[in-house]
Every structure is written in C-alpha cells, then in structure tokens.
Amino acid sequence: MKQIAFIGLGHMGLPMARNLLKAGFQLSVFDLVQSAVDQLAGEGARAAASATEASENAEVIVSMLPASRHVEGLYLGDDGLLSRIPAGRLVLECSTIAPESAKKVHQAARERGIDLLDAPVSGGTAGAAAGTLTFMVGGDAAALEKAQPVFAAMGKNIFHAGPDGAGQIAKVCNNQLLAVQMIGTAESMAMGVANGLDPKVLAEIMRQSSGGNWVLERYNPWPGVMENAPASKGYGGGFMAELMAKDLGLAQETAQVSASSTPMGALALQLYRLLLKQGKGKQDFSVVQQLFRDER
Ligand code: NAD
C-alpha cells in the first residue's frame, strides 16, 4: 500500500498528511484552499486540482473535512467520489460528523464494494503534528486491519469502537466531556483570579488535585499559564469554537436518538452558541474563558 489521496488540508489535515509523507507514502493532495495544497506540494506531495484527480490511482483515500455536509457533498451523489473510484479501494473518513451521516456514507460505499471506515480523531493539532492522534474507528474489522499502517503513521492509539458510525458516537461522547471540562476549568480559573490568586499557582494546584483534567494538563484556557496553549497565542490555531459548537450539536442529536439525559452537554452547547454570537467562532474553543473573565 503506497499511494494515498488526502482531501482536506486544514488545521488537522495538513499535519496528518505531512506525517504520511514522512512515513514514506506517496501522497496526492487536494483542498479548496490552494495555499494549503501548495504547501504540501513543496514538501513532496502531488498537487491535485480536484478530489477526483487526487484519488486517481490511490489505494487509500483519507478525508479530513469540517462537517457532515462537506463529507456527504464529497462522497455521495452521481458526482460523488464513491461513484468515481473503483471497488476495492479503502476510504478513511476522519472528520467529526453526525453518526447518521457516517452511516449513510458507509452504506453508499458498501453498495459499490468500497471499504470505508469512520475514523474521527482526538488529540488536537498538537497530536496531529506529533503523529500521536487517537483514532476511534467504526466499520468492519477486516477494513481496519488493512488501514492499520496508515493510521499508525498518524496516530498512537487506534480503537475499534464498533460497527458503522460507532467511531462518531465515541467521538461526540468524548467531545461533550471535553467541552464540559473546558468550561468548568475556565469558570474556576476566573473565580480564583477574581479572588486574588495567581493564575499559574491556581492552575498548578488544581492540576495536581482532584479537579485535575486534560484541559489543566495540556490546554489551560488562561493566557500565559501554558506557553504553547492557544490561550497564550491570542486563542489562535487549535480547535475552532464553531467546530466545538458543531460537535455539541451532534452530541444533542445523539442523545435524542437514545433519549439520554445530557444536561451538561446542553448547557455547554448554549455557552458555545453565545460565543459564536460574539463573533468568536473562528478562535480556539478555549476562548470560552472570556465569558467568565472579570473585565472590571
Ligand atoms: P479546518 O476548517 O481547519 O479544515 C477543514 C479543511 O477542509 C479546510 O482546509 C477546507 O478548505 C477543506 N475543505 C472543505 N470542504 C472541502 C472539499 N469539498 N474538498 C476539499 N477540501 C475541503 O478544520 P480542522 O480543525 O482541520 O478539523 C477538521 C475535522 O476534524 C472537523 O470535523 C473537526 O471537528 C475535527 N477535529 C478537529 C480537531 C482540532 O483540534 N482542530 C481535533 C479533532 C477533530
């Protein structure tokens, strides 16, 4: 397995594609943004003018797009990629999308004899750059076996979550929890600082105490606490608040299907919608800190 097409070279896709190049795969790449394509072409990938062109001769197709509508737009319909590639190819769809949407794409692929896995990721842009992503995979175990070398070039932990769409269900559960941790950390940071604590001291105490969590370990939302966190870079880069709002919406849809009670996820969604209304949707999701900061 040598030739891979990579479609969607954004915050996550670009570093993931770069790791495939480093692992020795031949890569053809496409994104709607030409500068992203040019950047990887400069590093040894073949630039393609469309997803179809990128997929010619590719044994494996990897996609990393924003949301369900982009994924359905790429793969489904008479003009969709699944109608244009031969049976026997392997598609690794790594975007975070609705489980129902993933099932639709699985079904279309199966009808055409194409192996497809829903394989959303966790680990953020830092994990994408370091090749340490976690993949949560839904679909056939045999297809996952074939995909192992490709996943291994981009990630560290590869979980088979279950059948079609199961990767997406695991992902929305995880991101709902992440949002709740982020918001809880942000409000505690703001309360402590408003009461006179040094943010770095407070962050370290909570990190090493029973409130410790992934956000406090790797992604503190208070500017200046962690040099490399998006909060210390003007909330640039990272994982956009609008994508977190999308994932929280998917979590609510998923809860609806099972009649699950998810009050924390519902509140988190409302807080992220508020941020979007304030024009902060393109900033990193840790910008939720600004809802709680005392500006007086
Ligand atoms: P992004 O917006 O930075 O990148 C998406 C890319 O897809 C863009 O470059 C866009 O031009 C391209 N694109 C859209 N439609 C296309 C099409 N039809 N053909 C080709 N290219 C197309 O988003 P991202 O942060 O890279 O996230 C991608 C996915 O990964 C999302 O589903 C997100 O929820 C998920 N995710 C993101 C992170 C993170 O930390 N950023 C972490 C885990 C999962």
TrEMBL record:
Catalytic activity line of the entry: 3-hydroxy-2-methylpropanoate + NAD(+) = 2-methyl-3-oxopropanoate + NADH + H(+)
Pathway: Amino-acid degradation; L-valine degradation
Entry-linked PROSITE patterns: 3_HYDROXYISOBUT_DH (PS00895)
SUPFAM superfamilies noted in UniProt: 6-phosphogluconate dehydrogenase C-terminal domain-like, NAD(P)-binding Rossmann-fold domains
All residue ranges annotated as the 3-hydroxyisobutyrate dehydrogenase-like NAD-binding domain in the record: 165-289
Main enzyme class: oxidoreductase
EC number: 1.1.1.31
Gene Ontology annotations of biological process type: L-valine catabolic process
6-phosphogluconate dehydrogenase NADP-binding domain mapped to chain residues: 3-162
Keywords: Branched-chain amino acid catabolism, NAD, Oxidoreductase
Family, as annotated: Belongs to the HIBADH-related family.
PANTHER family: 3-HYDROXYISOBUTYRATE DEHYDROGENASE, MITOCHONDRIAL, 3-HYDROXYISOBUTYRATE DEHYDROGENASE-RELATED
Descriptive protein name: 3-hydroxyisobutyrate dehydrogenase
Source organism (scientific name): Pseudomonas indica
